[in-house]
Design goal:
single chain, alpha+beta, 12 helices, 4 strands, 63% helix
Amino acid sequence: MKLRLTPVAVFVAFLVGCASYKPLPLQSTPRFPAQAPHLTVLSTRMPLPELASHRFDPSDGLDMTETAMLAVANNPQLKVSRDEAGIAQAQSFAAGLLPDPQLSLAKDFPTNGAVGNTNAFNLGLNYDVNALLTRSANKNAAQAAQRQVDLNLLWQEWQVVSQARLLFVRNLGQQQLLSMLQNERALLFSRYQHTQHALAQGNLALDVANADLAALQTTDTAINDLMRQFVTNRHELNALLGLAPDMQIQLVGDAQLPAINEAALKSAMANVGARRPDLLALQAGYESQEQRFRQTILAQFPALNIGLTRARDTSGLYTQGFGITISLPIFNRNRGNIAIEQATRLRLHDEYQMRINSAFADIAKILDDQKLLEKQLKNVESGEDVLAHAAVNAQAAFDAGNIDSLAYNNLRTAWLAKQREAITLKQTMLEQRIALLTMIGGELPTQNKKDTK
């Protein structure tokens, strides 16, 4: 029994192979996770080994690594970027599809003439041969472009990890400063109450009481400024993590990073172009442009279109044959597109070199800054120890009436300034090392005990 493909069967088969439309309505209300302890993060989807090997458990708070893991999994901008990567994947799929043939049908109806004339028709099947010639280059260009998008997404994930670590460090530093200022304020407020009581009894001069009041107000101003910074940092962190603005998250643990092994770091810089996703993405983009340039070179040759025809004229005579259409490369010859793609390739070549140079320069700058910050921190910590010892002695001298309140407050203010300077320097060093983690394309080579001897 022979199967016959009727027009209805062919039409049904065509419909089955087509994609269907499904609506995806927009929502005008915000959607945030309800509670941080219920969030889940898959370690296998983390972009860095140190994140993939870390256990995510938000029930006891988030340490610096868990904060970075949650940022990668839940950052809103990363979700949009992953959608864009899906578009690039679809474009790569589309570039690999073979071009469809073209079917044409024309029919003529005689309006006068001899008896016996019939309706004429012309049926043709054509195919663009040049689309096949450039298909390989077009497909390779799309695949390289997809790799570029995927690598840019990976680089963006690294940037989100770096920003999460940075906000964690700032939060930790702000908490340390706030705790220090609040302890200082408690001491100043106690002193202010004593001076006010002594002033009321006539046992203290007004200028001494005013000095205590000025010191208390200065500390209050510093606390208020720091609280605003703390709130801003918290909102930035919540936005980075994709959490509701009013959600309170508990950050736990410290943010200590070991000392950098400068010699090993400089050695690792030699292959930074093979490690950093942004540089790898530029390489993929350059490869894609090479394929586009090749595609325009191929497109300068005459465009060829071939087809088969089947026809009947009004007298009932049937004919069949073939047709060839070829362009004559006399005026255009695709020279404009060739010039554009060649200039674009040169720009991408120079851009990659610029980014390589910038990567090395940025790393070298941070290494120099780290040396300077380490020296400054040693000096500040030494000065802090001296001022701490002096403050203890000043407290005893002030209680014995050997120094006035102004001298005592000035000494405590200097000690407080040194403490704040030390915390700020440590925070700056941590922030620079976090930046190095991203710039070098992996974990920092650090000093061990043998290196420090």
